[in-house]
Amino acid sequence: MYEPLLNRFIAYAKVNTRSNPHSSTIPSTPSQIDFALNLAEELKKIGLDEVEYNEDNGFVTATLPSNVDKDVPVIGFLAHIDTADYAAENIQPQVHRNYDGKDILLNEELAITMTVAEFPQLKNYVGQTVITTDGTTLLGADDKAGMASIVSAMEEYIKHPERPHGKIRVAFGPDEEIGTGALLFDVEHFDADFAYTLDSGIVGKFEYETFNAAQAEITFKGTSVHPGSAKDSMVNALLLAAQFATALPQEEVPEKTEGYEGFYMLSSQVGTIDEVKATYIIRDHDKRLFENRKRHFKELVDQFNSTFDQPRLSLKLYDQYYNMRDIIEKDMYSVDLALEAYRELGIEPDVKPFRGGTDGSIITYKGLPTPNIFTGSENLHGKYEFVTLEGMEKAADVVMKIIELTAAK
Ligand SMILES: [Zn+2]
Q1: Alpha helices (H) along 111-256
Q2: How far apart are the first and last CA of the chain?
Q3: Alpha carbons 190 and 28: distance in angstroms, whole number
Q4: 195 and 182 share a domain?
């Protein structure tokens, strides 16, 4: 049904839209602007209305106008333009049709193979069209697969005006991977009643619970003195930072937790005897436990400072996003509708608390409930990333089924 889906995905995937966490521009990289402008042209060409590129936030939005006489809710669908902070230069998607279930040679020259021993889930895709990298970059199925599925579903509706649908809004935005894109999303202008991101993994996944998230940046100030005369005067910021890291609960780290268990994670630490800068992330699904974690972190900083005659640690602690469940569970309509669509299509819903955040975590708190639908992709953010055409088709099916069910109610 979605003839152009594969080609559309490949065309999107080939463009380097890597975001840059160290940039202060919006979007974080100019290539995302070029991509968005081309996308806007494509959306106009397939026949969507109100196609707009907003240069203040980097989002492309468009409308599929209602073709029914009654009032039905306006549904939004979103995907992100950028790809993770991983090699994205010269992406060469490889298409493996009628996949035979064996190891996949990604790159003959460099002898890079994706093996079934290492990735046993490959067995689930026998007979399907598997799209991989050439072993040197990521694929960017996160989230070009989501984009391609949404655009292809819109194109289907335009080609088949006899199918009833309400008003649909679509949005494609930058910088999801660096957690900033959705902060500037204009929910009022988008004007949907509820929305979905297509930004999850394998077929069946559905998420409406995410972490509450905060980031802590600590600077450890040392006193650097020649080691020969350092007695009673040197304060080694490197050791101080190491002591701080080991004073945190050692079992509450990502590698030792799962499900609803929260954690602290040291994500970077650089410095010298004189000064160390460390970054931690703090995560918990439960708002109360999340607040406790932040409090514990602050208290530990104070405790360390109290052992010196001057403050040696300075802390910048800020919230990044919140668990969308706390909002969505007040009205489960968007969740129930999506799961009904999954079941009608014979897709077994796999609903688990997501150990991360999505654009929806931020957008939901702006007032637009936005759970997350699968894209059919796996092994995201690296050279073993892949997606199947069948998975992308199912994601497009879910989009269309949600629209169809809404128009029929
Ligand atoms: Zn993503």
Answers
A1: 141-159, 187-190, 237-247
A2: 25
A3: 22
A4: yes
Q: Which two three-digit tokens encode residue 25?
A: 């521009």
Active-site residue identified among 134, 156, 176, 359? 176
CATH number of the structural domain spanning residue 343:
3.40.630.10
Annotated binding residue at 165? no
Q: How far apart are CA 258 and CA 250, in angstroms?
A: 15
Neighbours of 198 (CB within 10 A): 26
The predicted structure's pLDDT at residue 323: 97
The tokens for 148 are 């391609």
Give the CB-side neighbour count of residue 318, counting CA atoms within 13 A: 3
Between helix 287-305 and helix 237-247 the angle, nearest 10°, is 140
Is 118 annotated to bind a ligand? Reply is no
Is 199 among the annotated ligand-binding positions? yes
**Distance (Å) from CA 409 to ligand 1 centroid:** 31
Range 69-98 average pLDDT: 96
Calpha distance 365→367 (Å, rounded): 5
Is 176 catalytic? The answer is yes
Query: Do 154 and 402 form a contact (C-beta atoms < 8 A)?
Result: no
Domain that holds residue 313: 212-321
CATH number of the domain that residue 288 is part of: 3.30.70.360
How many structural domains comprise the chain?
Answer: 2
- Does 150 share its domain with 251? no
* pLDDT tens readout for residues 352-392: 999 998 899 999 999 999 999 999 999 999 999 999 999 99
Question: What count of residues does the chain have?
Answer: 409
Q: Could you give the count of Cα atoms lying within 13 Å of 217 in the half-sphere of its Cβ? A: 6
Cis peptide before 309 (omega within 30 of 0): no
Q: Calculate what percentage of the chain has a pLDDT beyond 90.
A: 98
Q: Are residues 222 and 198 in the same domain?
A: no
3-state SS class at 345: coil
| DSSP letter, residue 349 | P
Protein residues with C-beta less than 5 angstroms from the ion ligand 1: 142-143, 199
Other residues' Cβ atoms within 10 Å of the Cβ of residue 41: 11
pLDDT digits (tens, 9 = 90+) for 318-346: 999 999 999 999 999 999 999 999 999 99
Closest CA to 6 of 95, 127, 99, 101: 95
Q: What is the pLDDT of residue 409?
A: 87
